[in-house]
Amino acid sequence: MQNEVILMWTAVTAYAGGAVLFAFGTVFRREALLKAALGVSLAGMLPHTVAIGIRWVRTGHGPYLGFYEVVSSFAWAAVLVLALLAWRYQKMRNLGVIIMPLALVLLAAAMFTPTADLEITSKLASWWLTIHVAFAKLSYASFTASFALAVAYLARERKSKGSLAEVLDKLPRQEVLDDLSFRFVGVGFIFLGIMIAAGAVWANEAWGRYWGWDPIETWSLISWIVYALYLHVRLTLGWTGRKAAWFAAAALPVVLFALIGVPIVYRSVHGAYLLGY
């Protein structure tokens, strides 16, 4: 347990260092700092991954029981998004100035909550739970990428001069950012739908009903509808560019509230099992 805590705080430190370096690299237009920021951020993934693995082996289940495990894994997924974007498109590493502060806040929030191990009960032990949680992470990662791309699009459109503009200009063209944001919403929408469906099957195994309008279930459906509306206005009404970017940027807080905020605000059987209160 002590080793896990040390590893997690090492990850927090690295993520904080990465966020700071991204900020300085952006403000002072230092390419070397931006490269270092990405390296430090990705280096933080190593202790974070090892800590998650240690806990997984010790508890016998993945990172999906308790606020600490759930939010920590979402922070890990956010950094993974940055890693994949930077690997696929080298210029995308500058999105770290948006993604790393988000990952840092999530992981820091997780570290100040109870970290006690939670035992997985016979009701929770199901392959459907694994599928449910896996697609929750995939949908969150996809929507985080869409959010970062949308924010970068809006920032570059509004900022034509200055240090931020010069850093953003190193990203792909606006049309590419807009298209990638749309594509990430598309895959995230599919992943979220699978998450909801798998969760319904699991809920029937655990509680004897597929759907009970539990707050987490309801807000997950609301999130899915929000992104369905995005796809509708994009594909049917032809929204692109600024309007689509604003929509994608505003949608992520809904998902974060559904995944993290709802169990804090509402008391429910779903939250009691998954977040351990």
The coarse silhouette is flat
Count all strands and give the number.
0
Helix/strand order: HHHHHHHHHH
- Which residues form runs of ≥5 with pLDDT under 50? none
Number of domain units? 2
Structural notes for this entry:
This protein has ten helices and no strands. It has helices spanning 2-27, 31-59, 67-88, 96-111, 127-158, 163-168, 174-207, 215-235, 241-265, 269-275. Helix 7 (174-207) packs antiparallel against helix 8 (215-235) and helix 8 (215-235) runs antiparallel to helix 9 (241-265). The longest helix has 34 residues, at 174-207. The radius of gyration is 19 Å and the shape is flat.
Write the layout of secondary structure elements.
Blueprint: H1 2-27, H2 31-59, H3 67-88, H4 96-111, H5 127-158, H6 163-168, H7 174-207, H8 215-235, H9 241-265, H10 269-275
Helix pairs in contact: 1-2, 1-4, 2-3, 3-4, 3-5, 5-7, 5-9, 7-8, 7-9, 8-9
Please give a quick description of this structure.
The protein has 277 residues and is an all-alpha fold. It has ten helices and no strands. The protein has helices at 2-27, 31-59, 67-88, 96-111, 127-158, 163-168, 174-207, 215-235, 241-265, 269-275.
